[in-house]
Write a structure and sequence with these properties.
Elements: H1 10-21, E1 29-30, H2 31-38, H3 42-54, E2 58-61, E3 65-68, E4 79-84, H4 90-106, E5 109-114, H5 119-132, E6 136-139, H6 147-156, E7 161-164, E8 172-175, H7 178-197, E9 203-208, H8 214-230, E10 239-243, H9 248-259, E11 267-271, H10 274-286, E12 293-299, H11 302-308, E13 315-320, H12 326-338, E14 346-348, E15 352-354, H13 359-362, H14 373-378
Parallel strand pairs: 4-5, 4-6, 6-7, 7-8, 8-14, 9-10, 9-11, 11-12, 12-13
Antiparallel strand pairs: 1-3, 2-3, 13-15
Helix pairs in contact: 1-2, 1-3, 4-12, 5-6, 7-8, 9-10
């Protein structure tokens, strides 16, 4: 405690916490809600409320609800928590940087924790957000199995939640329109195969991210539907699902094994994201069969854009999500939630097909470092 802190009165500080827990004029709160918002004991909150009611600063309504009898106190700046997916992927790093930038412009405090692509870390970080009493959490974690756990911890603490890319129970969703993004990519692959191979396709390889769950998987569902719109002759027996886990190294490994068994001359590959797509492409190149494949990515990440600039690359496109724009939209959504404005249950980003032909139009100022794309993708493994 500093010299100045010794003059503070603990009881008055707790009373201010209770008064500040009322966020809008006329808001009705139960004792349990005030206890959760203040992180004080039920007995302490009850005694403070009894005193505030006696002094006519708070009004008791019915038997178990309270509201301010004065205008809400001027609040401290909002403090938001951001659970970042990982520093492994450029997409994740771009989202995190855009959120930091937008939070700074909005004048809100931001506590950033790295989920490290780990479900256990995501759960621990949720506990930290609760202990730190943040006003709202923006959560970007990939494992569907712990999404209910993370959600419950935050919702029990009455902390609103925005889920980025992976839906969480009770959260407002922000991110990809997965089915549409897949549809865009699938149609493009079909048109390419029709124009360059006369529509002859031996095999379709779809690289999954199984731990992300059903909604992100609809990206591959959309891919297959879009492909069959152009090439209706594609049969189920021609479609192979492999779990690339959304990672370069894992996708390279599973394609290496698959190519030891497959001899398809015309193979279409679509992946959940760009690192996975590039890993698959490298597997074909390793065995000297690059001309037998074309690959479709998702995200239009810097690595994919660098690959699209390589002469004669077999990566024919990537669907853009523009993560550098996420922050502004997410922070605006967070402010609407905190100000109790109505918000939709899901907000989708706008997608755009990026190809070698239009790349410079959409990304004219790319300042990609010349270097080894694969080394960049593997750096965290």
């Amino acid at each position: 405690m500093t010299d100045k802190d010794r003059y503070l009165t603990a009881t008055l500080l707790r009373a201010c916490d209770v008064l500040e827990a009322f966020r809008t004029e006329g808001e009705l709160l139960r004792l349990s809600q005030l206890t959760a918002r203040t992180n004080l004991s039920k007995a302490t909150v009850f005694r403070i409320l009894h005193t505030l009611v006696h002094r006519q600063l708070v009004e008791r309504v019915n038997t178990n609800e309270y509201r301010l009898a004065i205008r809400p106190l001027k609040r401290r700046p909002y403090r938001l928590g951001y659970g970042a997916q990982s520093t492994e992927f450029s997409f994740s790093r771009d989202v995190a940087e855009s959120i930091r930038r937008a939070a700074s412009q909005e004048g809100v405090d931001l506590l950033v924790l790295d989920n490290r692509y780990s479900p256990n870390t995501a759960v621990r970080n949720a506990d930290t957000f609760v202990r730190e009493r943040v006003d709202l959490v923006v959560e970007f974690q990939t494992n569907e199995s712990v999404a209910p756990v993370v959600s419950l911890k935050l919702l029990e603490a009455e902390i609103p939640l925005i889920a980025v890319e992976i839906p969480h129970p009770g959260a407002t969703y922000y991110g990809a329109n997965n089915y549409l993004a897949g549809l865009i990519g699938g149609r493009h692959m079909g048109r390419w195969a029709k124009q360059n191979w006369g529509g002859a396709v031996d095999e379709v390889v779809l690289l999954e991210l199984r731990m992300a769950g059903a909604l992100p998987a609809s990206r591959l569902t959309g891919t297959l539907v879009g492909l069959r719109e152009v090439l209706p002759g594609i049969q189920d027996r021609q479609v192979v699902y492999l779990n690339g886990n959304g990672q370069f190294g894992r996708s390279l490994e599973v394609l290496r094994k698959h190519l030891g068994l497959s001899r398809g001359r015309h193979v279409l590959v679509s992946a959940m994201n760009d690192p996975s797509a590039i890993g698959a492409l490298r597997a074909f190149e390793e065995v000297g069969r690059a001309e037998n494949c074309v690959v479709m990515g998702q995200n239009a990440s810097p690595e994919a854009r660098a690959e699209l600039r390589r002469p004669a690359t077999r990566l024919i496109g990537s669907v853009a999500y523009f993560p550098e724009k996420y922050g502004e939209a997410i922070i605006a959504l967070a402010m609407d939630i905190l100000h109790r404005k109505p918000v939709p249950p899901a907000v989708f980003v706008k997608h755009q097909l990026i190809t070698p032909e239009n790349l410079s139009h959409y990304y004219p100022n790319d300042t990609l470092l010349a270097g080894d794309i694969d080394a960049l993708l593997l750096r965290s493994h």
